[in-house]
Design a protein that fits this description.
By secondary structure, this protein is mainly beta. It has a single domain, classed as Ribbon (Umud Fragment, subunit A). It is built from two helices and eleven strands, in the order E-E-E-E-E-E-E-E-H-E-E-E-H. The protein has helices at about 105-110, 140, and strands at about 10-15, 30, 40-45, 50-55, 60, 65, 85, 90-95, 110-115, 115-125, 130-135. Strands 1, 2, 3, 8, 9, 10 and 11 form a seven-stranded antiparallel β-sheet that branches. A four-stranded antiparallel β-sheet has the order 6-5-4-7, with no helix packed on it. It starts with 9 loop residues before the first strand and ends in a 7-residue tail after the last helix.
């Protein structure tokens, strides 16, 4: 999740965040890795159930809105110029790491089922010098209309 989150940082995860409201675009979540549920991953939600996500070598569109992502380390994957278009299934979430060139995420193994989400990362608390609120960058996603 570089550059937003660094290796060896510890974060507070709100495990009750999604009991009364669903996950939102931009949320940084901890979840059980769908291919090996003994591992936990942390990634950012890009696509919600029903969303149409398009990805090319350097851009992402959600429901036909181009994302301007100030939080990523670099363009998605300059080595793969092909366009992917996906419709996110019900109760599934499309997640990407902020360090796009090296992130192991939904581009490679698919969406995250809601029941594998552990919670929402809300605060980095260790080391103390890195203390910060985890930014969801809600303005990046504000123009995206819900899918029909």
């Amino acid at each position: 999740m570089l550059p937003g989150l660094q290796s060896d940082e510890y974060a507070v995860v709100n495990k009750m965040a999604y009991l009364f409201s669903p996950p939102q675009r931009g949320d940084v979540i901890v979840f059980h890795y769908p291919k090996d549920q003994s591992q936990d991953f942390i990634k950012r939600i890009i696509g919600l159930p029903g969303d149409v996500v398009q990805i090319d070598a350097t851009h992402i569109w959600v429901n036909h809105v181009l994302l301007q992502e100030p939080y990523i380390s670099a363009a998605i994957n300059p080595a793969d110029p092909t366009m992917q278009t996906l419709t996110i299934p019900p109760n599934q979430y499309f997640v990407l790491g902020d360090n796009r060139p090296t992130s192991d995420d939904s581009r490679y193994w698919g969406e995250v089922p809601k029941d594998l989400i552990v919670g929402k990362a809300i605060l980095v608390y260790w080391p103390l010098s890195n203390w910060q609120i985890v930014d969801t960058h809600s303005t990046v996603y504000a123009k995206i209309k819900a899918s029909k």
